[in-house]
Structure formats: structure tokens, C-alpha cells
């Protein structure tokens, strides 16, 4: 059983998928807290509907990113969180945060990294004209979408895809592989060696 903390900023469909995977026994873990930097995030409502504790932390009350992250880390540690899951969290983590939870922070990105890091990855993929895109679960390091890759899932891009239609198909895959990756972490099966993640059988 692993204690999970989830950071969100928006609608929270990945959070929803994780909550459901836990309820169905597909993840051996418990969400101890959902933290949002956005009071209006629909993700907070989803958590509350499943009796998951939430906290809104307003970055405007802190003088810089590090002080804000110190508050978040303190909150996570108080809840004995062992794995930090970024699920549509729109803020860049300070190195303080990354060091405090070294190799214990994961993110999901809606492209096959290292292609199309950064914002609006699905739009980038459509505009570039790739035939295959997808999503990536990775550990978070100090770079932008650059940490060791845990799982990926590929999605075909059709000629008439728009950013929205591609995003919708990728999202279905996100919900699958994020839950799988959390379960692998929970089982202690993810071994990081340099850039690579090895999955113990
Ligand atoms: C997803 O597309 C995820 O890949 C990206 O942000 C989006 C979050 O969506 N990091 P949701 O809030 O989980 O619905």
C-alpha cells in the first residue's frame, strides 16, 4: 500500500481514473491528499465526491516558487506521502521540491517523449504531421518533460485529426498507463538506472 499525493490544476480526468483504479483494486495505494493551485479546478470536486481530502494552496501567498513548494512538500510529508503524482498540474516544480521527493515524482505527458515536450503537445503533433503520437509517464527531473520514461502508449494520428480529436484518443490511453505506472511504483518494480527505467518482472 503506497501513500499517494496528487497535484492538479484543472479538470482532473487522470485523477478520476486513478481514484477508480484504486477503488477497483488495480492500484494498491491510497490518495492521502489532492493539492491544487487553482481553487476552481474541477479535479477538487472529483476528489471530494470520492471522499478524498483536498487542499487549495494559493501561490499568491508566497514570495517565490521555492517558498510555495516548501509549503506543498510540508503538506505532503505531513500526510506521509511516498509518491507524488502530477495530474495536469500546471506549475513547474522548483529544484527544492524535486530534491525533496527525488525519484518519487511522476508526470504524464500527452505525446511520445522526447517528441513534443511543453504545452499543447497534441497541437504540436498535429501541426508537425506525425503519423503516430501517444502519451508518456515519466519520472520528473529538473528539465522540462525530460525525466526517465516509465511507460508509453502509441496512438495513430489520422489525416483529419484536430488537436481536440487527437487529445481525446490520447486521453483514453493516459488513463490506462498512468494507473499501471502507479501500481508498478507501488509494487517497487521500477528501477532507475541513468536515463532508463527497468521494470522488474
Ligand atoms: C493531460 O492531457 C495530461 O497529459 C497533461 O495535462 C492533461 C491533464 O488532464 N499533463 P486532466 O486534468 O487529467 O483531465
Automatic annotation (TrEMBL):
GO CC terms in record: cytoplasm
Marked site (Raises pKa of active site His) residue numbers: 145
Gene Ontology biological-process entries: 'de novo' IMP biosynthetic process
Gene Ontology molecular-function annotations: phosphoribosylglycinamide formyltransferase activity
Reactions listed under catalytic activity: N(1)-(5-phospho-beta-D-ribosyl)glycinamide + (6R)-10-formyltetrahydrofolate = N(2)-formyl-N(1)-(5-phospho-beta-D-ribosyl)glycinamide + (6S)-5,6,7,8-tetrahydrofolate + H(+)
Enzyme Commission number, as recorded: 2.1.2.2
Protein residues bound to N(1)-(5-phospho-beta-D-ribosyl)glycinamide: 12-14
Domain (Formyl transferase N-terminal): residue spans on this chain: 3-182
Domain of life: Bacteria
Keyword Transferase applies: yes
Keywords: Purine biosynthesis, Transferase
Active site: 109 (proton donor)
Top EC group: transferase
Binding residues annotated for (6R)-10-formyltetrahydrofolate, in chain numbering: 65, 90-93, 107
Pathway participation: Purine metabolism; IMP biosynthesis via de novo pathway; N(2)-formyl-N(1)-(5-phospho-D-ribosyl)glycinamide from N(1)-(5-phospho-D-ribosyl)glycinamide (10-formyl THF route): step 1/1
Task of the protein: Catalyzes the transfer of a formyl group from 10-formyltetrahydrofolate to 5-phospho-ribosyl-glycinamide (GAR), producing 5-phospho-ribosyl-N-formylglycinamide (FGAR) and tetrahydrofolate.
Family: Belongs to the GART family.
PANTHER family: PHOSPHORIBOSYLGLYCINAMIDE FORMYLTRANSFERASE
HAMAP family: PurN (MF_01930)
Protein name stated in the entry: Phosphoribosylglycinamide formyltransferase
Natural source organism: Candidatus Infernicultor aquiphilus
Source taxonomy: Bacteria, Pseudomonadati, Atribacterota, Candidatus Phoenicimicrobiia, Candidatus Pheonicimicrobiales
Amino acid at each position: 500500500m503506497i501513500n499517494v499525493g496528487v497535484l492538479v490544476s484543472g479538470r482532473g480526468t487522470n485523477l478520476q481514473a486513478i481514484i477508480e483504479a484504486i477503488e477497483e483494486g488495480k492500484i494498491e495505494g491510497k490518495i492521502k491528499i489532492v493539492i491544487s493551485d487553482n481553487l476552481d479546478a474541477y479535479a477538487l470536486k472529483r476528489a471530494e465526491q470520492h471522499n478524498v481530502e483536498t487542499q487549495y494552496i494559493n501561490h499568491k501567498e508566497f514570495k517565490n516558487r521555492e517558498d510555495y513548494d516548501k509549503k506543498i512538500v510540508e503538506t505532503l510529508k505531513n500526510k506521509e506521502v511516498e509518491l507524488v503524482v502530477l495530474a495536469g498540474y500546471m506549475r513547474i516544480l522548483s529544484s527544492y521540491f524535486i530534491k525533496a521527493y527525488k525519484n518519487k515524482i511522476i508526470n504524464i505527458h500527452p505525446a511520445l517523449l522526447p517528441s513534443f515536450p511543453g504545452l499543447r503537445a497534441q497541437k504540436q503533433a498535429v501541426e508537425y504531421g506525425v503519423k503516430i503520437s501517444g502519451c508518456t509517464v515519466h519520472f520528473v527531473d529538473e528539465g522540462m518533460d525530460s525525466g526517465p520514461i516509465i511507460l508509453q502508449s502509441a496512438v495513430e494520428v489520422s489525416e483529419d485529426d484536430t488537436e481536440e480529436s487527437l487529445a481525446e484518443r490520447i486521453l483514453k490511453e493516459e488513463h490506462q498507463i498512468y494507473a499501471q505506472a502507479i501500481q508498478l511504483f507501488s509494487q517497487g518494480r521500477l528501477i532507475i538506472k541513468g536515463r532508463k527505467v527497468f521494470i522488474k518482472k
